[in-house]
Amino acid sequence: MMSTNFLKYCFLYIFLLITGILQAQTTVSGKIIDEKTNKEISGVEIFINESQKPVLTTTSGSFTVQSDSIIYKLKFSRKSFAFETADISPDNANNLIIKLSQEKVSSIEEVVIHNEKTKYKSKKENPAYRIMQEVWKRKRNNGLEKFNTYTYKEYEKIQFDANNLDSTFMNRKIFNKLDFIFDYADSTASGKMALPVFLNESIYENFGENKPNKKNKRLLVAQKTSGFQDNQVITLTAKNLYRDINIYDNTLNYFDIGFPSPVGTDGFSTYDYNLIDTISVHGENAYKIRYQPRRTEVLAFQGYLYIDTDSYAVLGATLKSTNKINVNFINAISTELEYDNPDDETFLPKKFVTEIEMTPFAKKKSAKSIIAKRSVDYYEYDFNKPLADSVFTRKKEEYDDRFVDKDEAFWASARPDSLSKQEQGVYEMLDKLQHTPKFNRIVKITETLASRYYNITKGIDIGPITSIYGKNEVEGDRIRLGARTYFTQNDPWRIEFYNAYGFKDKQFKYGVEGRYMFNRVNRFMIGAGTKRDITQLGVQLTTEDGILSRSFASSTVFARGENASLSSVNQTSVFTSIEPWKNFQVRVDGTLQSIKSANPEGFNLMYYRNGDLRKTVNDSRVSISLIARPGAKFSQTGVDRYEHGTLAPTIVLKYTRGIEGLFNADFNYNKLQFMFYKPILLGSWGKTLFSFEAGKNFDTVPLALQNIIPGNQSYGIVPNTFAQLNYYEFVADTYSTMHIEHHFNGKILSFIPLIKKLKLREVAFIRGAYGSLSDASKNINVDNLKYSAPDQQIYYEYGFGIENIGFGNIRIFRVDFNWRGNYLDRPDASKFGIKAGFQFGF
């Protein structure tokens, strides 16, 4: 499945590069002394931020460290002294005093602690294995599950910095009249510039109840975004880069790609572990274990685990990607996790910091890149405090824009830590840019590419720009121009329309739809629309009822064979929908339509009704759809909203009733349909996309109203279709289909010399369909002998694909090789085919 959100990531990245964002140099100096004697200590190793290698080993009591990136933390280590950490801010960067205390720490009985990787004959000889066994035995759960009720706050900060931009880049014409942004930059030791440019702060309040009923609520209290307060698409793009993780899980989700957890019960199948020290972490004695992947080509981490010597709880962990990470647009990932452990069975998150380096160019340290850093503080935990039922009730005021109206006094008191000077500069710089016409033009271009609509005046957008040109057998070359109303991202109403013209059939087509939402809380909405257009029916089983749903015909520019099986559809629809519960929608559609062949000479839709031969189907129907998206996360509160990237399933149950005689409708019929779709992470083995659909027509209807097993005669990859089926090859009263597609993420190809250097990834898939078609349903159609169902055996096709094809960090091309498994004796059966497409994802 293609990730539509990724386009937003890409365009956001280009925008940030153009604006010339950079990261700041930091120097920290101070003195290290013995806590008891106040004498200076030498021979101390100093680590910057999450670095695994010391940047300096002191030769005296004084020290000075310098970095090309912002220093927010220093770590001090010396034999016979407790490990010490210092948070760095502009206020204490000079004349820092570090006091080290001598401390005895326990060790595992008869274990020699090594600082370098040690080879063991078996993992049972490895002392780190004994420690990890204890961790697995006492695997902990999130402590929130053990209390009757709980509340806590989250402070989330997301910052984007541009990196490795030099004076040549700064002198480009694009920065003419924008060069004042470099007043906020500092020179690094390499002579290049660094400056943060995007900052988003959010504060959430969390409420939960485990007994007597399990329920929870996460409420956005305040949000502040540098320069983009009215552009939540960019803010959402930033938030979509990150997923919540639990270090105790076997698989950690980054970009909806599974990475094996070093604390997972199957960690030793992926990682080598080495006990290197015992240190003090927040006053607790801890084993420091270094881990690294056995094979650097796999998607895995390297770093350190800090395990409590008494309780074997994870006190903290660092996760850093290898230099050979095979993820599109990503050069590096690093995460630091800190936990509180209130008892022997549970943990509570304390602080998570994740840093992602993104670039579309090359995986080189000198490449121009974006550093995206997210830090989350969890604080003010409170347990077993009575919570009224009204706390969990969705309220109208939660869905307005008040969360962006907090003043500076609120933020100064609400932040767990104050902003650094560089972070404060982001707000000031972006405020100035808002008043620069050139900058606003760049933003407009970026928004156009991300949304596919171009704003021509207040409240009016034209587009989508990607649907302007199409081609099919009936219309030939096709031009489509559309527009919509758009005032803000939270519009309670929207009107959209389009006009299209085919140069072969010389016919105009049109479509118009309006929607209005009465209540933001339960999303109670009504809408109506009408259209007249040429459509490829039979490419989707559980169809969308929206008037302006995408027409497959207009996008089929290249296809195998001739496709004349297009329909002319006149349709008018009304609908209403509501979400009585979060992520559960009830929708009712009423549709009046007439359907006939758009190419009578090449595609016959004629049928018999009461002995008469008819060419047009008149249909009046009512549909009721129940749509569940458990776990899905959305932003915005208008008629349109943006979805955060999750692995949430989609479950649809739909009932359709055709009503004969209503507006001259020809048929009474009943149809029931079910659809389930779910992405599933399988650890280091990749991700499976699973889709299942089933349905039944309980009455006899002509071909235009039947269930068509979706074929795909285009050369492009179309999800949930059968690559080797022709359109209308299988027709069914009763049907079931299943699609299983597994992405190995390079797991297999990484073993092959030379091939692994190409960083290609393998995909395997199998598709199946089974159904039946009654004699009555066959005989009602004039071309009755042409249509049949896959009832002799399950139709199946299979194959493999190669994805991640491209260069540098831009690897968005995919090629699939498809084989037809059976029904090979059918006329015009396609036994083998190659399809290709662009796949925007990590």
From TrEMBL:
<dbReference type="Pfam" id="PF13715">
    <property type="entry name" value="CarbopepD_reg_2"/>
</dbReference>
<dbReference type="InterPro" id="IPR043741">
    <property type="entry name" value="DUF5686"/>
</dbReference>
<feature type="signal peptide">
    <location>
        <begin position="1"/>
        <end position="24"/>
    </location>
</feature>
<dbReference type="Pfam" id="PF18939">
    <property type="entry name" value="DUF5686"/>
</dbReference>
<dbReference type="InterPro" id="IPR008969">
    <property type="entry name" value="CarboxyPept-like_regulatory"/>
</dbReference>
<protein>
    <submittedName>
        <fullName>DUF5686 family protein</fullName>
    </submittedName>
</protein>
<keyword id="KW-0732">Signal</keyword>
